[in-house]
Amino acid sequence: RPTAQMDYLEGLNTAQRAAVEALDGPVLMLAGAGTGKTKALTCRIAHLLNTGRARPHEILAVTFTNKAAREMKTRVAGLMGETIEGMPWLGTFHSVCVKQLRRHAELVGLKSNFTILDSDDVIRLLKQVISAANIDEKRWPARQLAGIIDAWKNRAWTPAKVPSGEQAAFNGHALDLYKAYQARLKTLNACDFGDLLLHMVTIFQAHPDLLADYQRRFRFLLVDEYQDTNVAQYMWLRLLASGHKNICCVGDDDQSIYGWRGAEVGNILRFEKDFPGAKVVRLEQNYRSTPHILAAASAVIEGNSGRLGKTLWTATPDGEKVRLIGHWDGEEEARWIGEEIEAMQSGTRGMTPFGLDSMAILVRASHQMRAFEDRFLTIGLPYRVIGGPRFYERLEIRDAMGYFRVVMSPEDDLAFERIVNTPKRGVGGKAMQDIQHMARSNGVALKEGARLAVEGGVLKGKAKGSIAQLLADLDRWSGLAGEAGIGPVELAEQILDESGYTTMWLNDKTPEAPGRLENLKELVKALEQFENLGGFLEHVALIMDNESEEAGEKVTLMTLHGAKGLEFPAVFLPGWEEGLFPSQRSMDESGQKGLEEERRLAYVGITRAEEVCTISFAGNRRVYGQWQSQLPSRFIDELPEDHVDVLTPPGLYGGGYGAAAPQTSSSFESRVAKADVYESPGWKRLQERSQQAARARAKTTPSQARDMVIDMKAVSSFGIGDRVFHQKFGYGEVMEVEGDKLLIEFDRAGPKKLVAKFVVDAAS
Ligand code: ATP
Ligand code: MG
Fold it and tell me: What phi, psi does 662 have (nearest 5°)?
C-alpha cells in the first residue's frame, strides 16, 4: 500500500529495492563504493516505519562515525511520514553501548555515572599500574600494553578469556597487568572505549533475561560499514539479533580499513554461516563517480588478492580524468592545492565552479594537515578540520574538562590529579604523595583523601591552605551543578574564573596563551547547546570529530580513515609517496596484509570523488624536522594510463599550471613516472635547490628557519596604515610593525598583536 511518502522506493534500482523491501530475516548487502548501500539502508529504516512494521523505538541502527550517524538521522527524518513520531536509536557502536551500559553499570561493578577515559588517561593509568607492579616502564612502555589490552578487548576477551597462547605478551606480565588495570578502572568508576562493548557483551551473556528484553525491544537491527566491525562488536550484534534475526548489514570488503584496530573482514563471511538463509544482495551500479574515477579506483584495488570481487559500472558522463601532479616539496604541494582550490572555486579551470563545501583534502596521516592549515590561514581560505588534532584534545581544553569532570564525578581521580596543581597552588610531589597515601589507606578517592589529609593535619603550610580552598570550591560547584537555575555556561564560566584557571592564561606571556584563551571561550560557547554539564561531558567523551559548526562555506581537511562513507564533488589526495602512503609503519608491522589495507585505503580515497580527483606527491618532505627525498607511491604506478591526466608542476621544466592546459605526452610511463621526472634537468635543478635549502635549514632550528622565511616574506610587505584581513578577526589597519609581528586595530575585534603571516593584504 505505497503512500505518497513512499516515493523513495521509486528512486531505487531493482537490487536496492529488493534489499529495502525484504523486511524480515537476515539481509547482507555486499557491494562496492558508491553503489547506494547507505542510501538503501536509510530507505529501509523509513520503509519499516512507513509500512507500520516497526515503531521508531524498535529500530536500532549503528554506523561507524558520529558524522555518519548525524547524516543518517537527517536523511531518515526526511523520508519518514509525518504521522510518525520519535526517532530510532541511531548512533555509533560506542554511543549506543554507553547508553545501555549506563542503565546496567552495576552488573559489572560500576556506577551509572562512570567516566569514559580517553587514550591519554588510559596511558597515565597504565603507567601507574606498571610501576605498581615494579616493572620498568622504560623497557615496557605503557603505550604498548595499551595496544595489547585494546586488541584483547576488541576480541571480547575479558581477563578470564585470554587464551593461554596469548599470555606471553609483555614479558609474560600482560595478563596480570590487564587484571590490575581492570581493577583500577573499577575503583575509579571508569571504563575505556573497549570496555563499552566488552561490558555489554559480558552483561548480555550473563543475564539472558535482560538480553531477551533487549531482543524484544529492538526488533530490527541495521549496520552500516559492516566490514569494519571487530569481534566484540560482532558478538554484541549477534546476541541482540539471535532471537528475531531481523538484521541487515551492509558493507564492502574492499573498504575494510580498520584491521589495525581489530576489525575482521571475516565477519562478512561468517554472516551467512551464523544467519543461515540470509538474503544476500549485490549492487553493481555506482551512482557517485565518473567512469574515469571509477576505473582508476578499480584498477588500484585489483592489486589485492583474496577479494570477494565485484563488477562496478556507472552511467554518469565521462568528465575529467584523474589528475596527477608531482611537486618538489610538501610546502609547494600545499601551496598548489590552495591555489587550485581558489581557481576551481572561481571556475577558471574551465570546469563549472566548485563551492568550497564541495571540495575536500584527504590525507593519510594527520601530521600532513599542518602544511595545509598554515597555508590556508595565510591565504585566508576557510577550512574545517575533521578529526586529526582535535579541539577537545588540546591542553587547555583537557584541563578545563578536568575541572568539569571532578565537579560532576568526585571520584574521578585522573581528573583530580590533572587539576590539583593547575594553576600552581603549591601542591608539590610530597603533598601529592601524602594525599595518595591517605586515599589508598582509607580506600577512598583522591578528592576524599585530600580532605582527610587536610583535616588530619597531614598537609602543612601552603599546600594545606590551597587544598582546603580547592575542596571548598569543588564542593560549591558540585552543589551548583545539582541546582536548577544555573545553566552549564554560567557554571563553566564560574569554575574557570574562580579556580584561577583563566587568570593563569591571562598572566601567561607565551605566544600560545591568547589562542588558549580563545579556545576556552570556544569551549564555553559549545556548552550553550547542553542542558547540563553532565550531558556535555558525555558528548565530548564520545565525540570523534571536531564539529565546530560555524557558518560559511569551507574546504574540508580530514584523514582518509575519517572520510569513509562520505562523498565530495572534488577530492585532493596529497602525499602519495612511498613510506607515507603506503605507510611504512603499516607495512613494517603487518607486511603484505598491511600493504593491502593501505591499498584499500587508496580505493576508499579515490571513490570519495564524484567529479574531480586530484592525486599528488612531493619529491621532498620534512619528516620529524628532517628533509627526506621521497619516491612516488607504488599506487601511482597502478593507476591506469587511459584514465589519468598528468599536470605539469609549477617550476618544473619552467612550466606552470596557470592558464596553460594540462600538459600530456604520449607515453604514460614517461609522464607519471618517477624515473623520467627524476632524470629531467628541471627536476635535478629542483632537487639541488631543495637540498641547499635543507642544508641551510639544518643549521637552524625549524622554528628559526620558519621565522627566517617569515622575515623575508612578510615583514617587508606590510607597513603602518596598511589595510589587512584576518580569517577570524576580519578587516583592520596595521598600527605598528615589530619584527614579524604586527599590531593591528581590527574594525570589530579591536587591537590584536599577530604574526604577519596570518594576515593578508586587504587590497589583494
Ligand atoms: P560507500 O561504500 O562509499 O559507503 P554507498 O554504497 O554507501 O557508498 P551511497 O553513499 O549510499 O553509497 O550512495 C552514493 C551516491 O549515490 C549518493 O549520492 C546517493 O544519493 C546516490 N544513489 C544511490 N542510489 C541511487 C539510485 N538508485 N539512484 C540515484 N542515485 C543514487
Ligand atoms: Mg555508505
Answer: -55, 135
CA 725 / ligand 2 centre spacing (Å):
40
The ipTM, to two decimals, is: 0.99
Q: What is the pLDDT of residue 657?
A: 37
> Do 678 and 562 belong to one domain?
yes
Listed residues 188, 213, 230: the one ending a domain: 188
Collapsed DSSP state (helix, strand, coil) of residue 655: coil
Query: Is residue 752 part of an annotated ligand binding site?
Result: no
In this structure, what DSSP letter does residue 241 have?
H
> What tens digit of pLDDT does each residue of 448-500 get?
999 999 999 999 888 999 999 999 999 999 999 988 778 899 999 999 999 99
Q: Are residues 603 and 507 in the same domain?
A: no
- One domain for residues 64 and 152: no
Asked, for residue 18, whether it belongs to a domain, the answer is yes
Cα–Cα separations (whole angstroms), residue 752 to 97, 443, 502, 734:
46, 51, 19, 10
Full-model pTM? 0.72
Q: Is 208 in the pocket of ligand 1 (CB under 6 A)?
A: no
Distance of CA 551 from the midpoint of ligand 1 (Å): 27
> Residue 734 carries which side chain, given as an amino acid letter?
V
Ligand 1 pocket test: which of 14, 21, 35, 248 has the largest number of ligand atoms within 8 Å of its C-beta? 35
Among 195, 148, 140, smallest CA distance to 175 is for 148
Number of domains in the chain: 5
More confident residue, 67 or 271: 271
Write the CATH number for 333.
3.40.50.300
Task: Name the closest-CA residue to atom 27, ligand 1.
Answer: 12
Q: Is the CB of 37 under 6 A from ligand 1?
A: yes
What distances in angstroms separate CA 553 from CA 120, 352, 357, 371, 381, one per listed residue? 33, 17, 5, 21, 10
Kindly report the protein residue whose alpha carbon is nearest to atom 16 of ligand 1.
Answer: 287
CATH of the domain at 732: 2.30.30.140
Binding site membership of 13 for ligand 1 (Cβ less than 6 Å): yes
Q: Which CATH number do you get for residue 434? A: 1.10.486.10
Q: Which residue has the higher pLDDT, 615 or 371?
A: 615
Q: Is residue 105 part of a domain?
A: no
Q: Is the CB of 256 under 6 A from ligand 1?
A: no
Of the residues 118, 192, 195, 225, only one is catalytic, namely: 225
Cα 152 to chain centroid distance, Å, stands at 22
In a domain, 110, yes or no: no
Question: Ligand 1: does its nearest atom lie under 6 Å from the Cβ of 287?
Answer: yes
3-state secondary structure of 721: coil
User: Is the same domain home to 85 and 222?
Assistant: yes
Q: Which residues contact 486 (CB under 8 A, 6 or more apart)?
A: 480
Which residue's CA is the closest to the ligand 1 atom numbered 30?
Answer: 287
Q: 737 in helix, strand or coil?
A: strand
| Ion ligand 2: residues, CB < 5 A | 37-38, 565
C-alpha cell at position 114: 562512570
Is 37 a known active-site residue? yes
Which of 7, 12, 39, 226 best tests ligand 1's pocket when mutated (most atoms within 8 Å of CB)?
39
What is the pLDDT at residue 369?
A: 79
Pairing verdict, β 723-726 and 730-738: antiparallel
pLDDT at position 343:
94
337 plus 420 within the same structural domain = no
**Which of the listed residues 520, 542, 564 is the one where a domain comes to its end?**
542
Q: Estimate the crossing angle of helix 369-379 against helix 330-346, to 10 degrees.
A: 50
pLDDT at 763: 61
Told to judge if 225 belongs to the known catalytic residues of this protein, a careful annotator would answer yes
Judge if 56 and 141 occupy the same domain: no
> 672 CB less than 6 Å from ligand 1?
no
383 and 399 housed in the same domain: no
Predicted local confidence at residue 329, as pLDDT = 87
Could you tell me the CATH number of the domain that includes residue 120? 1.10.10.160
In a domain, 108, yes or no: no
| Domain span holding position 314 | 293-390+550-696
**Same domain, residue pair 375 and 439:** no
38 as an active site residue: the answer is yes
